[in-house]
Write a structure and sequence with these properties.
This protein has about 240 residues and is of the alpha+beta class. It has 10 helices and 9 strands. The chain is about 40% helix and about 25% strand. Helix 5 packs across helix 10. The radius of gyration is 18 Å and the shape is globular. About 30% of the residues are buried.
Length: about 240
């Protein structure tokens, strides 16, 4: 697809909406202003444990390639992380942070496995340190924490926060048929669409709109990194 797009002069955009989420952008900006800082991204969803088998059916590609790929897109585009630049990769094997579960597909009796939550740390060859956690049953609020080189928390950014959290919780109670993530991350989806349209129309120049639109080349690197992370995690969580 990338080759065809290049030959035909077509711009392809990837739908990683977390890259333009305000809490992510604030954490990235702060971390880039503090030498040797560490960033911890926590992506939560609010599924019930009894519904995880349905989530796995909808996302057979697995949690890392679907849910956690949002944060990996941030690592690729904001911190320059690639499979070639990974110096160290460590999985937090504590079950409070990482767990692999197996479910039986009722339709065909086939067992399928995936992570219900996972946490890992990446250190790159240039010394950048970042951590990612994804939890299918973590709740409504996701967050990003910027820490000093000594591990002290400098600032924590929440999404949603304040009045937005109360409004979203009210909407979730009112509309039980809508997929929760569309409600929780609705503003991020709209901002991504605005930036894509602005890019197509040639607006923004070097503004945040043009910087936060993910190209197919970046998308390929995100997929490579997702595959790498999945293999590393699988080798640890049996």
């Amino acid at each position: 697809m990338s080759n065809v797009a290049n030959v035909r002069g077509v711009q392809v955009y990837m739908g990683y909406h977390k890259t333009c989420s305000p809490y992510i952008e604030k954490a990235v900006t702060l971390s880039q202003s503090i030498p040797k800082s560490h960033v911890f991204f926590c992506h939560n969803e609010n599924y019930f444990k009894q519904d995880l088998h349905r989530v796995l059916i909808r996302h057979p590609e697995g949690m890392v390639r679907s849910m956690a790929s949002q944060e990996l897109a941030v690592l690729v585009t904001k911190f320059g992380v690639t499979t070639d630049s990974v110096k160290a990769f460590k999985v937090n094997t504590n079950k409070l942070f990482s767990e692999k579960q197996t479910f039986c597909h009722k339709a065909n009796g086939i067992e399928v496995s995936d992570f219900s939550r996972v946490a890992f740390k990446i250190v790159t060859t240039n010394g950048r340190s970042v951590s990612v956690m994804a939890d299918r049953c973590g709740g409504v609020v996701s967050f990003a924490v910027v820490k000093s080189i000594a591990g002290k928390e400098i600032k924590k950014f929440l999404s949603p926060d304040g009045d937005s959290a109360s409004r979203i919780e009210h909407e979730l109670r009112r509309d039980t048929e809508m997929m929760h993530q569309f409600t929780i991350e609705g503003e991020d989806y709209m901002e991504l669409k605005r930036r894509v349209v602005d890019s197509i129309l040639g607006k923004g120049g070097d503004s945040k709109s043009s910087r936060s639109v993910i190209s197919i080349q970046d998308g390929i690197e995100v997929l490579r990194l997702s595959n790498y992370c999945t293999q590393e995690i699988e080798s640890v969580l049996q």
